[in-house]
Amino acid sequence: MSIVDIPSRTAETSTPIHSTLAERWSPRSFEAAETLDEQRLTAALEAARWAPSANNSQPARFIVARRGTPEFTTVVENLMSFNQAWADRAGALVVAVAETVGDHGAPRRWAEYDLGQAMAYFTVQAHHDGLHVHQMGGIDPAGLASAFGLPAHLVPVTVAAVGTLASPDALPDDTLRARESAPRTRLPLDTLLLPTP
After folding, report:
1. What is the pTM of this model?
2. Which pLDDT value is given to residue 3?
3. Beta strands 92-99 and 132-136: pairing type?
4. Is the dihedral of CA 114, 115, 119, 125 positive or negative?
5. Where exactly are the structural domains of the chain?
6. Using 50, 70 and 90 to split pLDDT, how confident is the model at 14?
């Protein structure tokens, strides 16, 4: 199977949405031989920097580990095994970290929410520029914090693989290849809307 054989990745929506959002998806197959374009990576990080945050507190922090560096290997070692099986082919792994306490010691209750918004901006900008992003929850936050010497108020929340899309054939097993080419699905919009009294 080649990239052209993958079923359409465009979301089926109840009403039209921006094409970058409709076409964004989270692949696991990345071109391992291709070097990540630094300008496009910087643009994604800039988009993340300009995401909204509560009281403009800007609690999003990032560790950017490029393939071929010791930092990249460290991040891979702190992924769950099902993510290790494919994530080492990405051009970079970005550890998304929430700063959960502010400068004056006050807890930032919305830090993880705001970090999520920053990662959404990162993902959409990257996709717009021809990169693909796959965010992972299967990580070892304590292992990452220890490996990178993070203080207690800097909490790793997710890791995002970013790179150039490759064929599903590049994935190491049939299960991953099947998931890569499976149709995209979402709950119907009506399911997400809670009833009001």
Report:
1. 0.93
2. 43
3. unpaired
4. positive
5. 39-169
6. confident
